[in-house]
Amino acid sequence: HSQSFTLTIDYTGTEPSSPCNKCLNVSWDSTPPCTCTINFTLEHAFESNVFMYYGLSNFYQNHRRYVKSRDDSQLNGDNSSLLNPSKECEPYRTNEDKPIAPCGAIANSMFNDTLELYRIDNDTRTPITLIKKGIAWWTDKNVKFRNPTGDGNNLTALFQGTTKPVNWPKPVYMLDSEPDNNGFINEDFIVWMRTAALPTFRKLYRLIERKNNFQPTLQAGKYSLDIAYNYPVHSFDGRKRMILSTISWMGGKNPFLGIAYITVGSICFFLGVVLLFIHHKYGNRNTSADIPN
Question: Where is the composition biased (Polar residues) (predicted)?
């Protein structure tokens, strides 16, 4: 049974009837955050492990100045870069004369909605366990991103003298309560920092693991998605969505690369034929090396 299912729920809230419409004009630091709930039904059971993504549209993470706006040695735990970040991070390099950690525009714009799933069974809501670790590339988590080092393992002390990114509600050493998922090695942060190539993209948010072989991971039926809506996209006509996807044994469905290869290949082949024809018909038969006067 290797069928793969995908379910997408747009929760931007632009339609007046949407439960999230009231949250449309939130700011980064609304306290308490605006919350909304969207109910949905799964027609089919999701059998194998389920991947939960958030998707953004009309969000250009590929803008040249945005992509450069980070300091990789700071993110790698280099203590001198921590307190003196790269100029590339401007204007998100310092705030009130304190260096920003993590500096730059990518980190400053990190996605910060909270998504929770519940199964609804006869009016009782059962939370679905969402796993937040194992979503980033192993090399990113263990090689590229490192916390600053110093005496003791107290992250609050290690980030002393720095300040949080302007748009963040709390500093980087409070991203998670677990020490192996906090600071620069927080996986949600690492996933965000790997910038997307296209303006419509999705990023892995949580994993839902299959408990046993007798029950599907998510059985068919009624569910609700609880959203803490912090992340403003309305100002630039962006969209937000939550995606649940199971992946067949062949991996996910991503036709883009195949189409791109075939298109580019066809163009090259066509040009090759045309140029060959031109070369044979109009090519210069005079092979002597003399330059005519």
Answer: 74-84
